[in-house]
Amino acid sequence: MSKQTYKFCFCFRRRFRLAATEAPPPIKALFDQYSDNGIMTVDHLQRFLVDVQKQDKATLEDAQAIMHSTAHIFHRKGFNLETFFKYLFGDSNPALDPNRLVHHDMNAPLSHYFIFTGHNSYLTGNQLSSDCSDVPIVQALQKGVRVIELDIWPNSTKDDVHVLHGRTLTTPVALIKCLKSIKNHAFDASEYPVVITLEDHLTTDLQAKVAKMVTETFGEMLFTPNAESLGEFPSPEFLKRRIIISTKPPKEYLKAQETKASGTGSQKVNDSSEAWGGEIPSFKSRTTSGSKDDLEEEDEEEDLQDDNCAPVYRNLIAIHAGKGKGGLDDWLRVDPDKVRRLSLSEQELEQAAKTHGPQIVRFTQRNILRVYPKGIRFDSSNYNPLIGWMHGAQMVAFNMQGYGRSLWVMQGMFKANGGCGYVKKPDILMKNDSIFDPRATLSVKVTLKVTVYMGEGWYYDFSHTHFDAYSPPDFYTRVGIAGVPADTIMKRTKAIEDNWIPAWNEEFEFPLTVPELAILRIEVHEYDMSEKDDFGGQTCLPISELCKGIRAVPLYSQKGDKYKSVKLLMHFDFV
């Protein structure tokens, strides 16, 4: 990496000097402060861990273990500047503690947790014409998703059950194949329960067939309550390695239309305005409509119970779904004797939040609220998950097969609690004496200070003309908060021209009113004067688990895959 040549104007060449990665001035100053004669000993490192990294309980043994774990890079007497810098920028100094596994209290009812939830989990692509398959279900489970949605319909001969997105051109997959894949992979990433939400379009005899399939496939893994309805949801700990069925006992068989929905076949799939998806919509800019979308989920049930349902099928349902007969007030009614699941589209929730915010929060303290994407998201895009989380919604259902900023935030939230797919809701959402009002403006609880020192790795993970055909890239970093409206903001560094190893050394402050719901967003882009800026990596981190001090932050692709080499060196502190 000494020099690099770019061609331009056919016959001319431009040569750029490529510097090696070296510690930025603030890191050099810290090394000087915690070293003697150019060597940082174990004693120096222990003081650095306590003073700078805010690891108050760090011992000499901890410092010695770090030096032993990095024995391939440090001098036998300790760290010199180069090896200290390599340690800071290495995999053993992450922003989230990899040894911090499940640490939330997992003995509360399911309604006390945010749950990693998929929408139309069987689709491989868009909502109109992609294939249905068990592959995206397996991929979701392996990423920690705990709620899988299956739309079940009769096959063409009405004697078996398929999974597909009804009234579209999506090709079906057999239900039994999906069930077997769920059984085989449910607990690959987490031991905590998997919920299967069924959108049921079956006759009574096919419901009985589904009941037999489910029972034979899952056996003792299946959780079936003793009573017809639960007075309180069991805890994730109690339900470890169990499969739970959630659906509404159908009022009647909704026969599938033989013809496709009007205009569906020729509906253009809406591409995102940017390769990595548009900016996450703010709450204030949303426009809502009272009309029902073309492909809205059929969740307009009037009764929570119905006799026209196969008894063996009904007995499988552990989490009953239903809205009740009346309007919003009735939907959000809290029954002291039983709990249930309510489903609302993103638009329905946005409308309800304008007038019933605290009531929604109260409802979700005992009951489960599932939010799903509006039906016109044909491209499998997603919405701002905070609209659900700030109202206590446990199941904020996302299209996991897509990608974009909203999905990055979702992935960031569920990096918390060891990535087990269950995150305990903050106390602010569970207080009975003073119900949280999501629309209220609160005072600042804490301020997060973020310093973006530098980045590296693009030279190794991308071709040298990927970002610019005529010169090295001009990188800048965007950093900000996804949270309640008062906390949501994005800021950016200056662009560093013609440099594969940009050093920004810029500091930002983020006052937080509800830090418990805040996600740190980090993106790198390459500035392009004539075209759209190129994507250079992203990550989202739960602020509740952010390690203080100087940390190495690996970046991910648009689809959420970790780059081999691309990372940032950053500093985090709370004041």
Mind summarizing the main beta sheet? 7 strands, mixed
Radius of gyration: 26 Å
Overall average residue pLDDT? 88
> Helix segment count?
13
Give the structural class.
alpha/beta
Task: Quote the distance from N terminus to C terminus.
Answer: 40 Å
| Poorly predicted regions | 252-276, 285-294, 298-306
How many beta strands in the DSSP annotation? 22
Assembly state of the chains shown:
single chain
Strand content: 15-25%
- Molecular shape: globular
Amount of helix: 10-25%
Characterization of the model:
The protein is of the alpha/beta class. It has 13 helices and 22 strands. The chain has helices spanning 25-33, 42-51, 60-69, 81-88, 135-142, 175-185, 204-218, 311-314, 328-331, 346-366, 386-389, 405-413, 458-461, and strands spanning 3-8, 12-17, 113-118, 147-154, 161-163, 173-174, 194-200, 222-223, 243-247, 317-320, 341-345, 368-372, 395-398, 422-424, 446-456, 475-482, 489-492, 503-512, 519-526, 534-542, 549-556, 562-574. The strands form five sheets. Strands 4, 5, 6, 7, 8, 9 and 10 form a seven-stranded mixed sheet that branches. Strands 11-12-13-3-14 form a five-stranded mixed sheet. Helix 11 (386-389) links the parallel strand 12 (368-372) and strand 13. The longest helix has 21 residues, at 346-366. It is globular and about 80 Å long. The two termini are 40 Å apart. The model is unreliable at 252-276, 285-294 and 298-306 (pLDDT under 50).
